């Protein structure tokens, strides 16, 4: 099995080889650049110094509770100069996929407001929210059945929706059942979402599985879900096409999660740098439980350490 290189333990020559081995660098945000939008010490300096070295710096996040515009503003407030096209989120890959699939019919979105707004801004119609229904009103629930059966939809989107309830899931099932050619789009299959010391909270995975089980039980004949966030193929395709990546080995992908970030890098044949400032700790490397090709090429404690190495070589 390939050995992992801790950047701070390498001789200066190999550290320099590392910085010269890529032209473009993608950063995950949560756990890499910041925690709850508070920058990790040294991260801002690190990004700016990489830009000074002439590197193309971009960002890839699965967080869809903020629009790319919101993220851009947070980056700028932190002192990172970026442009809107530099930021990739699942909404962008979703729109990329909807365009490629020629989807123009309305969408049923179980998603945060930010996601819905971004879809509306891109010209997509979103079906209205399903109102809460009292459980003693079965006839009212069945009216939703009739309405869903008659409605043509382009896609059902299931993202982290904090207002998800029985009726929304039931209606999603009906839309998927009666629109077998529609897309069933899922942001991520994360089981949990980090929310600080009181967390984590359960994430999208369980709700996707619930809908899949409902479709299975009802013998619905339709395509399975398509994941749009990391580590999906759609995300990798979007990145390669949008940033004109012709030599994937000249790309460095930096993340704090093996299953999300390192897996994305593996799919895209990018170089992999794992930081230990978020999801993964050293034990994840010592007790390796993932496919071998997810193994990072390099590891750094955090972007502060990466910045110290960069300064020691180039200042
Ligand atoms: Mg992360």
TrEMBL record:
Obligatory cofactor(s): Mg(2+)
One GO CC term on file: cytoplasm
NCBIfam families listed in its UniProt record: HAD-SF-IIA
PANTHER family: 4-NITROPHENYLPHOSPHATASE-RELATED, RE04130P-RELATED
Record's protein name: 4-nitrophenylphosphatase
The family this protein is said to belong to: Belongs to the HAD-like hydrolase superfamily.
Residues engaged in binding substrate: 230
Cofactor note as given: Divalent metal ions. Mg(2+) is the most effective.
GO terms of molecular function: metal ion binding; phosphatase activity
Residues annotated for Mg(2+) binding in this entry: 28, 30, 256
Highest taxon in the source lineage: Eukaryota
Keyword rRNA-binding attached: no
Keywords: Hydrolase, Magnesium, Metal-binding
Active site: 28, 30
């Amino acid at each position: 099995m390939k050995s992992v290189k801790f950047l701070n333990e390498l001789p200066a020559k190999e550290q320099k080889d590392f910085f010269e081995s890529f032209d473009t660098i993608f950063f995950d945000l949560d756990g890499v650049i910041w925690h709850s939008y508070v920058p990790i010490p040294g991260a801002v300096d690190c990004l700016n110094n990489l830009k000074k070295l002439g590197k193309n710096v971009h960002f890839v996040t699965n967080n869809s509770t903020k629009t790319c515009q919101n993220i851009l503003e947070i980056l700028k407030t932190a002192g990172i100069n970026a442009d809107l096209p530099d930021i990739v989120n699942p909404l962008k890959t979703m729109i990329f996929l909807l365009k490629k699939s020629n989807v123009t019919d309305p969408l049923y979105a179980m998603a945060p407001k930010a996601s819905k707004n971004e879809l509306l801004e891109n010209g997509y119609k979103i079906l209205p929210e399903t109102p809460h229904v009292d459980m003693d009103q079965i006839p009212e629930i069945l009216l939703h059945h009739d309405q869903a059966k008659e409605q043509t939809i382009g896609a059902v989107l299931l993202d982290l929706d904090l207002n998800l309830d029985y009726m929304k899931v039931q209606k999603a099932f009906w839309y998927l059942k009666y629109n077998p050619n529609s897309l069933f789009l899922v942001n991520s299959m994360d089981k949990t979402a980090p929310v600080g010391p009181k967390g984590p909270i359960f994430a999208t995975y369980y709700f996707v599985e619930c809908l899949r089980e409902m479709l299975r039980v009802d013998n619905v004949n339709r395509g399975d879900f398509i994941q749009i966030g990391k580590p999906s193929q759609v995300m990798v395709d979007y990145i390669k096409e949008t940033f004109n990546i012709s030599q994937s080995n000249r790309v460095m992908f930096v993340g704090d999660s093996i299953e999300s970030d390192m897996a994305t890098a593996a799919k895209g044949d990018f170089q992999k740098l794992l930081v230990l400032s978020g999801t993964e700790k050293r034990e994840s490397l010592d007790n390796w439980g993932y496919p071998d090709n997810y193994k990072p090429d390099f590891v750094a404690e955090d972007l502060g350490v990466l910045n110290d190495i960069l300064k020691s070589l180039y200042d």
